Amino acid sequence: MPVVSFCENNFVHGVEGLITKIEDFEDVSVEIESCLGFCGDCAIGPFALVDGDLLQAETIDELYNRIKEEL
Prior knowledge:
Elements: E1 3-7, H1 15-23, E2 29-33, H2 39-44, E3 47-50, E4 53-56, H3 60-70
Parallel strand pairs: 1-2
Antiparallel strand pairs: 1-3, 3-4
């Protein structure tokens, strides 16, 4: 089962709504961590880890599409 991880500190970029969408996917585990150790990336914009691989985007919609493609 793929694991999509989000950083709580990245919530300022609006990832909460994205998390809800990803949780609706079947056979996907969603993890929310206090810090994922990607502080520079976190400060720039929305990001997530999919099975440990960093996915970044300029917008939440773009990140959502990148996550869907990766899954």
